[in-house]
């Protein structure tokens, strides 16, 4: 069982991480929210909230909404509008334990700025391929 939280503890969660690996999104919205790409994992059977008093959602586009802590501002989740409750991408940085997973893909690579680059060999997908 994996556990995670925001910085202040107003949002805590648990679940079983899938073995798919880490997805990296380079879109402008992720970079604005995180000052870098969003790196996220999926949980096999969804996220189970153990504390939700700080959880806030922002509908950033018609493609998804972003879950964050309204108290400390931590980035926590991303969810497609058609996703079931708890079927969210989970920010790797919010997990309590270090993740040894490999990156399995990069998306929105046409939005990636030149000031950073990843050395992995994972597939790179443009927005029209995602």
Largest sheet: 8 strands, mixed
Mean pLDDT across every amino acid position:
94
Determine the strand fraction and express it as a percent band.
35-45%
Number of strands: 11
Structural class: mainly beta
Oligomeric assembly: single chain
- CATH architect. name: Beta Complex
Q: Which bin fits the share of residues in helices?
A: under 10%
Radius of gyration: 14 Å
Order of helices and strands: EEEHEEEEEEEE
**Strand order across the largest sheet:** 6-7-8-9-4-3-10-11
Number of helices: 1
Find the CATH topology: Metal Binding Protein, Guanine Nucleotide Exchange Factor, Chain A
Shape assignment: globular
Distance between the termini: 29 Å
The number of domains: 1
**The level-1 CATH class:** Mainly Beta
What does this entry look like structurally?
The protein is mainly β and 130 residues long. The protein contains one helix and eleven strands, in the order E-E-E-H-E-E-E-E-E-E-E-E. It is 5% helix and 38% strand. Strand 1 and strand 2 (12-15) form a beta hairpin.
Summed up, what is this model?
This protein is mostly beta strands and 130 residues long. It has one helix at residues 28-34, and strands spanning 2-5, 12-15, 22-25, 38-42, 48-51, 55-61, 64-69, 75-79, 89-91, 103-107, 124-125. The model has no long low-confidence stretch (mean pLDDT 94).
């Amino acid at each position: 069982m994996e556990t995670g939280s925001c910085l202040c503890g107003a949002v805590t969660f648990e679940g079983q991480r899938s073995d798919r690996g880490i997805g990296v999104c380079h879109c402008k919205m992720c970079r604005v929210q995180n000052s870098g790409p969003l790196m996220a994992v999926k949980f096999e059977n969804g996220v189970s909230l153990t504390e939700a008093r700080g959880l806030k959602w922002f509908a950033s586009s018609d493609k998804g909404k972003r879950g964050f802590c309204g108290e400390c501002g931590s980035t926590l989740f991303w969810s497609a509008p058609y996703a079931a409750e708890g079927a969210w991408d989970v920010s790797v940085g919010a997990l309590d334990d270090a993740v040894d997973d490999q990156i399995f893909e990069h998306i929105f690579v046409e939005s990636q700025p030149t000031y950073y680059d990843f050395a992995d060999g994972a597939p790179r997908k443009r927005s029209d391929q995602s």
